[in-house]
Amino acid sequence: MNLKQLAHMLALSQTTVSRALNGYPEVNEETRRRVMDAAKRHGYRPNPSARRLATGKSGMIGYVLPTGAAVDIDPHFVEFLSGLGDYARSHELDLVLSPADADDQETTYRRIVANRQVDAVYISSPRPQDSRVALVSTLGIPFLVHGRSEGFDFDYPYLDIDNEGAFHEAARLLIQLGHRRLALINGDDRETFAIHRERGVRRALAASGLSLGERHVCSVVMTEENGYRATRRLLEEGDAPTAIACSSLIMALGVVRAVRDLGLTIPGDVSLIAHDDVFPWLKPENFSVPLSTTRSSIRLAGARVAERLAARISGLEEGARGEVWPVDLVVRGSVAGAPA
Amino acid sequence: MNLKQLAHMLALSQTTVSRALNGYPEVNEETRRRVMDAAKRHGYRPNPSARRLATGKSGMIGYVLPTGAAVDIDPHFVEFLSGLGDYARSHELDLVLSPADADDQETTYRRIVANRQVDAVYISSPRPQDSRVALVSTLGIPFLVHGRSEGFDFDYPYLDIDNEGAFHEAARLLIQLGHRRLALINGDDRETFAIHRERGVRRALAASGLSLGERHVCSVVMTEENGYRATRRLLEEGDAPTAIACSSLIMALGVVRAVRDLGLTIPGDVSLIAHDDVFPWLKPENFSVPLSTTRSSIRLAGARVAERLAARISGLEEGARGEVWPVDLVVRGSVAGAPA
DNA sequence: AGAGTCTTCCAAAGCGCTTTGGCTTTTCCG
DNA sequence: CGGAAAAGCCAAAGCGCTTTGGAAGACTCT
């Protein structure tokens, strides 16, 4: 059932039917009702390919997925996706993932924009002066950054959590508990979120006349194994920290294992606070010692990103609005006063 | 730059240019070269929307993503996606995720097929007599099932791993080591993979005149917490198992924690084998006691699914070929002889 | 009543590609 | 050398929708 047929059986022109369906004003309300009614009754659905060819709009949002033999998609992605889906589902928005060589995403961005494959894109895990942000904003497609970039002479729309504030709070708590030597096991510090977290920790330390030791901060891919290794290194050297802030729950697993392997305890010998993106399959309260966390649901962020993207597509949201969500500090058993 | 312009500047008709580009035979090789050359030089790329309207082909593969407030996307999905991306990237295949209410995916399948949004779809986590498989095969769109369904009077193409064989081997090993009371902590047993795993364990037990105790098998969503709870329950009741087979590494985290909480040890008091889909961020060899596993890379499966889907789209693969991958049994420290 | 203004609808022109059917040229072969 | 077959190319008709530029009729206003 296509427009032509529908128009014919209503004895109307395609124009009128199209306009009636798309809510244009120049059609009689009574006629519109008739059209809407018939459309529903016959299950008419406009062919998206045709509509797309005519309008250039696709009703899909895009994401360029960095891939490569040595590239692993972040497990956080799936939770983000859940959120995105939550919103998209109820708005018949589809998401198209365009896999790209992690080292050459530009080609893919240009392709999906030139092809008008999607109405908007989002960018995640941005770095300072991220070339994708610059690219996409010159390409002139609606977009939203999940996270923040830095160092541009222009503004851009983003949704981020207050990473700096979160880790500032976490560090401040540890300092209040008497800890003087903190360590930070961070994610990839070429990414802004990691930079912000480090900044938060440093600021808290500085406020008490302390600082983050050269060897007390490390930046690694967030795996359990890396959490373990980093912790071993930290605790086996002299000047070992008495408290650790850790950028992910997955690494925290490794931290816990390392502490145990060394015959130490949490929080007796070392206090631990990790960032929790809220996974359904791994909860901080279920760690052998319940984990204190800075918590922010990445799933909710996904839903919000979809919502704002939809708003930008339809012109409801404009400009370069940045949105920063506060992060909860949840104190559980893994922190205690510094050992004597 | 569109076909028309390109044709005009080559002083050829659109027909010829189109045919030259698409490899049709009725065009002079010399002409073809000229066309290809000019196309490349001017960076001509056919507009996919237009091509799609004309041919009905979209160059994308689809996946209906079950979502809902109470629905969490499986973290395995992200690894599968990495694999899919590995293949898709080099073939300019995009993946479109269509979020759907988990309880009504049919509508969405019908929509994406009717709209010709994608050239093929894949289905994952199938159940016996999965309605999606039946639906999709009547809708007549190329598809592939990742996993297996059962109980149909027709065949369908799939890619699965030998879940039954894997768990049969695992159980057999445990039995050989003298274990008599095995337990299985399984995933959702409405899904075929879980059924097959249980079948494998039962078959191994039966071969030695043993059986799986009524209360020694449980089916839960695969989270750390559920692994923990299941293990507590198993070990605290009378008739506790001396060996556990577990369907995921994530649940295995919970198993390990529970065993430790009870003051027991692995493998002294209880042996453990888990299934490992091969995550980069959580490795069985890094468990406090290195974990024995049945191993199969879900990432490789993702790549293979994409490859076969592409083959089916282009007509290179036909029929209902089923492909079952063997699973490695990797023995590490978490298994030992049964306690006296 | 005539001019101007809405309101409501329509015919037709795209959007950019593929593909059908046909028209010239070449090539082949007896 | 003549006729058939093959090769090489083209014009034009879709694919199904949106949108431009009117046109006809109904209303308003002076």
TrEMBL record, chains A, B:
InterPro entries: HTH_LacI, Lambda_DNA-bd_dom_sf, Peripla_BP/Lac1_sug-bd_dom, Peripla_BP_I. It comes from the Bacteria. Keywords: DNA-binding, Repressor, Transcription, Transcription regulation. Pfam families: LacI, Peripla_BP_1. GO terms for molecular function: DNA-binding transcription factor activity; transcription cis-regulatory region binding. The keyword Transcription applies. This is LacI family DNA-binding transcriptional regulator. It comes from Mesorhizobium jarvisii.
